From TrEMBL:
Coiled-coil blocks: none
Signal peptide extent: none
Superkingdom assignment: Bacteria
Organism: Hoeflea olei
Protein name from the UniProt record: Histidine kinase
Ranges for domain EAL: 23-273
Shown residues in whole-protein numbering: 368 to 642 of 653
Length: 275
C-alpha cells in the first residue's frame, strides 16, 4: 500500500511540474505575442429553437502562438489576467468582434465575455464604451457576459461598470449560471437581462432527473424575473428534445455548431436565411 501511495504522489508531482512549466511557457509566449496578429475571434451561434434562427453569436478567443501553436482560452485567459495583459487583450478582442458583427444583419446580436479586470475599474469600462461607440454598432445588439467570480473582487465597482454598459443599451448576461456562489442574491443585485445555464446541467439532461429539475427551475426563475435564458452546451438531439419540453428557447452548443471563424459565421448566416 505504501508503494502505491508513494508512486501516486510522485505521478501527481510530475504532472504538477508539467503544468507549471506549461504555464511558464504560455506566460513567456503571451508577453512576446503580437496580440493583433496572433489572436482571432471565433463565433458560436445562439439559436432560437422556436424559429430555428441564429439570433446571436458568442465571441470566443482563439490564440495561435508561433511557438506553442493553438492554445485554448481556458489556458491563456487566466495567464493574461495574472500578468496584467487582459485589459489590452479584451480591447483587441472587442474591436475584432465588433468589426465582424458590423457585417451581419442588424437583428443578429453579439455576446462578448468580460473578465474580472474589465469591470474592476471605471477606466477599463470607459475604454470598452469608447470601442463600442467607435464601432458604430447599435449597443442594443451587444450582450456582455459576466461570471460571478468576476464580481467577487469588488462588487460595488463591478456593479457600476456594468451599469454604465447597461445604460448604453447593452445587455448583461450572467454566465455559467448555477456553478458559482451567491447566484440568487446576485440575480437580484445586478442589472441583468439574461442568464446562461451552464453546460454541466445539460449533459445527459434527458437521463438525469436532478438536472431536469434544476433546468426547469432555472427557466422558470428567469422567466419570472423577466430575463432571457440561454442554455449552453447542447450536444445531442435527446438533450435538445428534453430542453424543448421544459420550455427552453435559446440554445447554444455543438449540436448546432462549434465556434467558427468570421468567414464561416457569415456563411452560416447565409444558409440560416438571416442574411
Ligand atoms: P464560456 O464563456 O463558458 O464559453 C463556452 C465554452 O464552451 C467555449 O469554450 C465553447 O467552445 C464551449 N462549448 C460550446 N458549446 C459546447 C458544447 O456543446 N459542448 C462542449 N463540450 N463545449 C461547448 P472555449 O471557447 O474553449 O472557451 C472557454 C472559456 O474561456 C469560456 O467559457 C470563457 O470563460 C473563456 N473565454 C473564451 N473567450 C474569451 C474572451 O474573449 N474573453 C474572456 N474574458 N474569456 C474568454
Ligand atoms: Ca461565455
Ligand atoms: Ca458559459
Ligand atoms: Ca465557463
Amino acid at each position: 500500500a505504501k508503494r502505491t501511495t508513494r508512486g501516486h504522489s510522485m505521478l501527481f508531482s510530475q504532472s504538477h511540474v508539467k503544468a507549471i512549466q506549461r504555464e511558464k511557457q504560455i506566460e513567456q509566449a503571451l508577453r512576446q505575442a503580437d496580440l493583433e496578429a496572433e489572436i482571432a475571434v471565433y463565433f458560436q451561434p445562439i439559436v432560437d429553437i422556436g424559429s430555428d434562427r441564429t439570433v446571436a453569436f458568442e465571441a470566443l478567443a482563439r490564440w495561435t502562438s508561433p511557438t506553442l501553436g493553438s492554445v485554448p482560452p481556458g489556458q491563456f485567459i487566466p495567464v493574461a489576467e495574472r500578468i496584467g495583459l487582459i485589459g489590452q487583450l479584451t480591447r483587441v478582442l472587442l474591436r475584432k468582434a465588433l468589426a465582424s458583427a458590423g457585417a451581419w444583419p442588424g437583428e443578429v446580436g453579439l455576446s462578448f465575455n468580460l473578465s474580472t479586470h474589465d469591470i474592476s475599474s471605471s477606466e477599463s469600462a470607459i475604454a470598452l464604451a469608447g470601442i463600442i461607440m467607435a464601432s458604430g454598432i447599435d449597443p442594443r445588439r451587444l450582450d456582455f457576459e459576466i461570471t460571478e467570480t468576476a464580481m467577487m473582487y469588488d462588487f460595488a465597482q463591478a456593479k457600476s461598470a456594468i451599469n454604465m454598459l447597461k445604460t448604453m443599451g447593452c445587455g448583461i448576461a450572467l454566465d455559467d449560471f448555477g456553478t458559482g456562489y451567491s447566484s440568487l442574491s446576485q440575480l437580484h443585485a445586478l442589472p441583468l437581462t439574461k442568464i446562461k445555464i451552464d453546460r454541466s446541467f445539460v449533459t445527459e439532461l434527458h437521463k438525469n432527473p436532478a438536472s431536469l429539475k434544476i433546468v426547469k427551475s432555472l427557466l422558470a426563475l428567469s422567466s419570472d424575473m423577466g430575463l432571457r435564458c440561454v442554455t449552453e452546451g447542447v450536444e445531442t438531439e435527446e438533450e435538445l428534445a428534453a430542453l424543448r419540453q421544459l420550455g427552453g428557447k435559446l440554445v447554444q452548443g455543438y449540436l448546432f455548431s462549434r465556434p467558427i471563424s468570421e468567414t464561416d459565421a457569415t456563411e452560416y448566416l447565409l444558409q440560416d436565411g438571416a442574411a
